[in-house]
Every structure is written in structure tokens, then in C-alpha cells.
Design goal:
707 residues, alpha+beta, Glutaredoxin, five-stranded mixed beta sheet, four-stranded mixed beta sheet, globular
Length: 707
């Protein structure tokens, strides 16, 4: 263990990431006026370090450099050092990530950036080893050289920072001030072709190693399949989701997905678990089950949602952000290892299980005596001799290999998993980042709401409802706030917080038909428009006039998380379908059109925007169920709707209840929709013209299948 140092200023912060660094010998400051004023008054450059609490290489750089007294001495003497949690302040992260990517061609975390006292960047990178190695300058060397140049000629560095900042501002101004353009279906076709050309037909996914889940790709391809009926689009999604669920990137004992796979087979993961991955993958598995019911996918969905309920849910109702990749191999050991909580030796498996259970488990999950992790997937040697569980053989194959029937295999495998999970639960757990982020909670509300629609488990609906109540009570005052840990932080919400939460509220309404969620979604959309909208189209990530942000960015890339613009465009299309408002449909189309240059040149980089394009150019469909929610015939009609993948529809309930008056004030057509002959009825409306009501589930199914 490193020596314990007196706490620095980070000890007063809420962020788990900042608190992890609160006993470093580095004289860290949080992002804010105190640090900026010190840099200006003492005429020192700023060293800015950005990361997050479950970031493996952030931990490595802390151990190697920030806990190193001699390196800390250089930082304390020559720099004002600032720590930022990228999850608390995505606005700061975006500004300096834009600089690092534009000057180095890549980015990542930890992000290390040198700034002038006026916050203008002049040099940046990601992880630096403490001393020169790996063909990279050592952090100690870099700090010393920059300090020497600053001392001799600070004007040169200040000028360099000003030129870099001006160049980025000019580029953003030129690219972001373009007027919204006309939409074309060609973008959908080109996006599909780009994704198909990058698809891995052997292992699934859309890249070589490392392989990241990118749920927005699944969202688009399923909608493209629904529009065109090109089976290859569906097959790419199905194959990839199956490979992911069977690989080591999935936690076969506890449920949930790790961040990404370091190899091309989805076998050896980077072991951190992020809330936003669980949320978006829950939606992906829910939607593919709607397309084609599949017990394996249903199990993956259920186990993922159960993992979040068990391990990422706060008693107050919100969802925690992440679990770390690193953990202690056993109690009393000083140094954490990546994946230690999750991996097994064959000796452990044989000792803990009966011989019958062990042979079944080893055959099923690829356990080897020497370990099953290739050296190329483990450059640090942390997994030597260990086994990462993956589904090597299914039940039928294990039955053949072991001479048992499938029922025996199922029973023995289930018993083995229960025993090993019980033992694993006694191991030192990975660090939990227990801050609650509005944006990621919005995504998880969608995951639970859609999971409820598919699986019918009311625990999932209750979890989504509790989270909405929590956010409304704790993080809406009345503006959204970004995060909560014990109490809310003072940081206001960003465009993604609004967009992701609005999406979650719309999804939750279709699960429980509580009009409170529609009301709140509408209020948040008005706020989002006022705070972030660009008259040219689209939304900036931050509000105008923030004194500590050099420039506003309109994000378009749909990566590990979708962009706020892509989700907002989809939200506007959905609001248009719900409230019969063509102006919202036009606004959604203008958001998509604001990114016409990117959609023209690199549509596969914007898959969620392509999904929104599909939404704003599709025939709007409303399905209204007239009847009390809990009546058996209403439940049956809803079962028919929820068992089908109908992405560009809105489902409303006209039940005559307390919310009915508010709904009819905003949707006048609902006044005419009532039960038929005393029975719940379904009204299917296209282009705001409705078919005759139906009361038979079979007839409703035929109508929906013809859409």
C-alpha cells in the first residue's frame, strides 16, 4: 500500500473518482475558480487530468505517478494540478478531448492536458508511464521539459495555446453553423452498407479487436430491417448479440456485461461494468425478442436487469454508475488486479464442486487447467493461469460430451453456477462508483421499461418508476441537475441529461400509462429547447455563456453512448406521434438535417441518428387502447402490441381515469375513442386517421402485422 498522505482539496468533493485521489501527495484542485485564480496569480501552467473512478489505466497512472512523491513534487512546484471526473463534467471532458484528438489523432482516459492559465490547451495525451518506456515519453520527463520551456519562454506556449484554441473554434464554427439540410433515405442505405462491410462474419461485431458493444448500431439495423425487410440487417444483430451473450464479456454467474472485449472473440473482457451498457443492451435484447422470441436472449435480458436491481440500485431509487475492473484477489492482499473478482482456476472449480458438477461446468464454460486466457489478451500477465468463463458448449453438446441427458446437464450446471456465485460473493468486491447520473438513469429507465414490456416482470416496471420519482424529487429543481451522491451536486444538467431522461419517460409511459411521465417529458423538452437549441438546427451540449468552457460543441457521434442530438431527434418524432403535432416532427427532422454533412460522408458513425431519420421519415402510427388498464381484455390487447417490434408507433391509453382529462386537452381525438360494446377496444391510426376500433386480439394482430 502507498503511504497515506494528508488529504488535499479533493477530500471535500462528492465524486468517487476525485475522492480516490484525495490522499495523493499531488496538491490537486477540483475544476473551478480557486484553481484558475491560483494559476493566473502565480503565472503557472495547469496540468489537467481527466478520468473516472472505474478506469483501469487511470488507476495505473495514479499508482505509478500521482502516488509518487518525486513526481508530485514536480507538479506541486511548477503547476496547478486539476482533477476532473469526466462523468460529472462531460462538458469539460468534451472540450479537451476535442483538442487531444485533433492534435494526436486519438483519445481516451486518463486524459492528460497542459493548459495556459486562461484554460487554453497547448499539449495533451492520455496515459503516460512514469519514466520513458513503451516508446513514449515518461511523465516525469514531460513535466520537467514543459516546466523548463514555460520558465524560459511562457509567451511562446501561451501563443501556441491561443492558436490551437482559435483553430478549434474556427473549425467548430464552420461545421456547426451550417443550416439544416434536406433529408434523404440514401443515408440509411449508405449507413447499412458501411456497417455490413465492417461486419465480422466469424465472431460478430463491426470491428476487429478490441470489440466494443455499440447498441446504437443494433437500434439502427433493426429499424432498417423493419423498413426494408433485408434479412442480413437482422442477422447481423442477432449473431452479434448471441456471440456477446455467450462470450466472456458477459458475466455468466452474476449477469450483466463488461465494458468491452480485448480480443476478437468476445472472450477476454475489460472487466468494468457500466450502467449505460446494461441500459442500452437491455433495450437491444428486448427489441430483438420482440422481433423473434428467443429463450436465450430472454435469459440474458432477465439476468442483466437482475444484476442492476441487485448491485447497481440505490435504496433511494436511483441507479449507480459503475463497478470497477480491478479488485483484490483476496482479503489481505495489497494490490488489486483486473478481473480478480470474476476469474477462476480449475483447481478452485474442482475443489468447490462435486466431480459431476465440475466436469459439466468445465465443459460448458471452457475451463482449462493452465487457464484459458491467451498471452496476447493479457499483456500485463494479470490473468495468467486463470479462466474467464464463456459458453464454450451449449447444453446439447455438453450432454453428448459427457454422456448425460439434457435435464441432468441443466440441473448440474445450475447447481454449479449457484455454488460458484455464492463463493464469488464472498470475495472482495470491485469498487462501486455510487454516484447517480441523470443521463445514465434515463437510459436505465428505458431498459427497465422495455424489459417489462417483453418479460412482464413487475419488478422491472417498479424499478423504472422508483428511478423517475427519485430523479424528479432529487435532481429537478426545476432545472435538471447532473448528479447525486448523498445530495445533489450543483452542476446543472447537460443536453444528454435532458434527452436521455425524456426518452426514458416516454418509454415508461408506454409501460404504465401514467400521464405524469408525459407531462414531465413535455416540460423537459421545453427546457431543453430553451437551454441548448441552435437556431440552425440541433442542440449544443452545454448552455450558452459558461465561463469555464472554451467552446460549445454539437455532438453527433453515437459511440458507447448515443449523442444527445440523435436521441433528441427521436424524442421529437415520438412526441409528434403522441400529441398529433406535425411541428415536433418537423423539428426532429431539422435536428437530423443539421448533421447532413456527417450523414453524407460517414453515416455509420451516427447509427442512432439514422434510427431517428427512419423515425422522422416514417408514417406516424398511433395505437389507442380505450378501456381500463387492468381489465383482462385490455391486458390481452396490450400483449399483442408488446409482442411485436413496432419502433415508430405511439401507444396511448384512454381509460377515463384521472389523467384522461389532461390527455384529451392535448390530444383532442381521444375524446372520440371509447370502449366498444362495453369491451376494451384498440384504435390504430396512421397519418392521424384511425381505422375502425377492434376488440379481438387476433384481429388487432393482423392489423399490426400489416403495418
Amino acid at each position: 500500500m502507498p503511504p497515506e498522505h494528508a488529504p488535499n482539496r479533493l477530500i471535500h468533493e462528492k465524486s468517487p473518482y476525485l475522492l480516490q485521489h484525495s490522499h495523493n501527495p499531488v496538491d490537486w484542485y477540483p475544476w473551478g475558480p480557486e484553481a484558475f485564480q491560483k494559476a493566473q496569480s502565480e503565472k503557472k501552467p495547469i496540468f489537467l487530468s481527466i478520468g473516472y473512478s472505474t478506469c483501469h489505466w487511470c488507476h495505473v497512472m495514479e499508482r505509478e505517478s500521482f502516488e509518487n512523491p518525486s513526481i508530485a513534487e514536480i507538479l506541486n512546484q511548477h503547476y496547478v494540478s486539476i482533477k476532473v471526473d469526466r462523468e460529472e463534467r462531460p462538458d469539460v471532458d468534451r472540450v479537451y478531448m476535442t483538442f487531444v484528438q485533433s492534435t494526436t489523432g486519438s483519445g481516451g482516459w486518463p486524459m492528460s492536458v497542459f493548459l495556459t492559465p486562461e484554460l487554453k490547451p497547448f499539449l495533451g495525451g492520455t496515459y503516460y508511464p512514469p519514466d520513458d518506456r513503451y516508446g513514449r515519453p515518461g511523465f516525469r520527463t514531460l513535466l520537467t521539459r514543459v516546466a523548463e520551456v514555460w520558465e524560459k519562454n511562457p509567451e511562446k506556449i501561451i501563443d501556441q495555446g491561443a492558436r490551437f484554441t482559435e483553430a478549434i473554434q474556427t473549425h467548430l464554427r464552420d461545421t456547426q453553423s451550417i443550416e439544416s439540410g434536406a433529408l434523404t433515405p440514401n443515408w440509411l442505405e449508405n449507413g447499412y452498407r458501411q456497417l455490413a462491410s465492417s461486419f465480422d462474419p466469424e465472431q460478430g461485431g463491426f470491428s476487429s479487436a478490441p470489440k466494443f458493444p455499440r447498441p446504437a448500431v443494433f437500434n439502427f439495423l433493426l429499424r432498417y430491417w423493419r423498413r426494408t425487410r433485408k434479412t442480413n440487417a437482422f442477422e447481423m444483430v442477432e449473431f452479434t448479440l448471441r456471440k456477446m451473450a455467450r462470450g466472456g464479456m458477459y458475466d455468466h454467474l452474476g449477469g450483466g456485461f463488461h465494458r468491452y472485449s480485448v480480443d476478437e472473440r468476445w472472450h477476454v473482457p475489460h472487466f468494468e461494468k457500466m450502467l449505460y451498457d446494461q441500459a442500452q443492451l437491455a433495450v437491444a435484447y428486448s427489441e430483438i425478442v420482440q422481433v423473434r422470441p428467443d429463450p436465450e436472449f430472454e435469459q440474458t435480458l432477465r439476468e442483466t436487469l437482475d444484476y442492476v436491481l441487485r448491485d447497481l440500485s440505490s435504496p433511494e431509487g436511483g441507479f449507480y454508475s459503475a463497478e470497477d475492473a480491478d479488485s483484490l484477489p483476496q482479503s489481505g492482499v495489497a494490490e488489486k488486479r483486473e478481473g480478480a473478482f470474476y476469474v477462476w482456476t480449475q483447481e478452485e472449480v474442482d475443489y468447490l464442486l462435486t466431480p459431476e458438477e465440475s466436469i459439466i461446468f468445465r465443459r460448458m464454460y471452457g475451463i482449462e487447467r493452465v487457464g484459458n486466457v491467451a498471452a496476447a489478451s493479457d499483456p500485463q500477465g494479470e490473468l495468467a493461469g486463470q479462466n474467464v468463463l464463456f459458453l464454450q458448449n451449449d447444453m446439447q453438446m455438453v450432454a453428448k460430451l459427457t454422456g448425460r441427458n439434457q435435464d441432468q446437464v441443466t440441473q448440474l450446471a445450475s447447481a454449479a453456477r449457484r455454488k460458484l456465485k455464492a463463493v464469488r460473493d464472498q470475495r472482495p468486491r470491485p469498487h462501486l462508483d455510487d454516484k447517480i447520473l441523470t443521463a445514465w438513469n434515463g437510459l436505465m429507465i428505458s431498459g427497465f421499461a422495455k424489459g417489462f414490456l417483453v418479460l412482464g416482470d413487475h419488478r422491472y416496471l417498479a424499478a423504472a418508476q422508483r428511478a423517475c420519482d427519485f430523479l424528479q424529487n432529487k435532481l429537478c429543481q426545476p432545472r435538471l441537475l447532473r448528479s447525486y451522491r448523498g445530495t445533489a451536486t450543483e452542476t446543472n444538467g447537460f443536453a444528454e441529461d435532458y434527452a436521455f431522461l425524456i426518452q426514458g419517460l416516454l418509454d415508461l409511459y408506454e409501460a404504465d400509462f401514467d400521464v405524469r411521465w408525459l407531462q414531465w417529458a413535455g416540460e423537459l423538452q421545453v427546457q431543453m429547447d430553451a437551454l441548448f437549441a441552435d437556431p440552425n438546427g440541433g442542440y449544443f451540449s452545454t448552455k450558452e455563456g459558461a465561463p469555464d468552457i472554451l467552446f460549445r460543441i454539437k455532438e453527433d457521434h453515437d459511440g458507447a453512448e448515443p449523442s444527445a442530438n440523435s436521441v433528441a431527434a427521436m424524442n421529437l418524432a415520438r412526441l409528434a406521434r403522441i400529441f398529433d403535432r406535425t411541428e415536433s416532427q418537423h423539428t426532429g427532422a431539422r435536428v437530423v438535417g443539421a448533421f447532413h454533412a456527417a450523414l453524407e460522408s460517414r453515416p455509420a458513425a451516427l447509427p442512432q441518428m439514422l434510427a431517428a431519420l427512419d423515425a422522422v421519415t416514417s408514417e406516424p402510427v398511433q395505437i389507442v387502447i380505450a378501456g381500463a388498464k387492468d381489465l383482462p381484455e385490455t391486458v390481452e390487447l396490450l400483449r399483442v402490441i408488446r409482442g411485436r417490434f413496432l419502433p415508430n408507433k405511439a401507444v396511448l391509453l384512454a381509460d377515463g381515469g384521472r389523467g384522461q382529462h389532461w390527455l384529451t386537452q392535448h390530444i383532442e381525438a381521444l375524446r372520440l375513442m371509447a370502449p366498444l360494446h362495453g369491451q376494451s377496444a384498440a384504435y390504430v391510426c396512421q397519418y392521424f386517421r384511425c381505422e375502425l376500433p377492434v376488440i379481438e386480439a387476433e384481429r388487432l394482430a393482423r392489423i399490426l402485422d400489416a403495418l
